[in-house]
Here is the input.
Amino acid sequence: MGEEPAASPGAATPRAALLRARLPGACARGEFEVEYQPICDLRSGRALGFEALLRWRDAGALVPPDEFIPLAEESGDIAALSDWMVARACRDLAALGAACGVSLNVSSGQLVEPGFAARFVERLRAAGVDPARVSVEVTESVLIREPGQAIAALAHLRGAGVRVAIDDFGTGFSSLAYLRELPCDVVKVDRSFVAGATQDGVSQAILEAIAQIGRRIGVAVLAEGVETQDQRDWLAQAGFALGQGYLFGRPAPADHWSGRSADAAIASGPAAE
Ligand code: C2E
Ligand code: CA
Ligand code: CA
Here is the structure.
């Protein structure tokens, strides 16, 4: 065999090869869609913003983003996809509600591309969207490859008013040191901890500690994967301000949410005081 490129896990499977072959024209063929999941005030249930989640309908079947995004990064298609996504989210903001924000996932490869932050801000301005309504979500993996460039890009985005969220906090290689090194406004605690919020003492201790750190350093804490009212109540009393998960709503197209945000609680029932 000749020289193999550095492959992502699973890239050599027949399915990955098939998806890789189909990916380049997929955006032009209109096969991508964006769904939005509400980010809610944990106590009131009001939607404060929405996370944009990419969907690829390939030959009628949905391909999970966890599967195609690594391939798009590898091929370089992610740049065009991301431009398309930003334009789409800017357009959809009108349907999502005048007061709402939108959160966009940015992969570590994208963030450190030269000029990424400037182009991102420029696209928001060109679409007439106030950068303060937009957040980018990055994982701690952005610090692994080129930490200096990643931190500079995040500082550029924040300087323009874009908010920065650390995604999946507590998993992977994340460590508390990232809270010191990554300029951020929100910490999104991974749903694996939230799943233990009402039963597992270790997860509870971790959640309480993160909530306390957030309060002390002035960073909002968001619980991901909130599925039950009991979890919501426990998280609210532990000091979490924000929540996201099936309890509040599954990801859905923008028009599903129009008229339901800002002034309407998405999940009814008071959270514990
Ligand atoms: P993520 O950023 O952590 O997004 C949250 C994932 O959790 C979404 O899966 C969402 O549907 C799912 N989820 C939300 N609430 C619940 C819940 O209550 N319970 C459970 N079990 N799951 C919940 P999805 O849409 O399959 O996305 C998977 C990942 O793909 C995302 O994880 C993100 O890392 C990536 N992704 C999605 N869209 C984009 C994109 O536009 N750009 C980039 N770079 N990555 C994206
Ligand atoms: Ca995310
Ligand atoms: Ca996440």
Confidence is low (pLDDT under 50) at residues 1-8, 269-273. The chain has one domain: 14-257. The domain at 14-257 is CATH 3.20.20.450 (TIM Barrel).
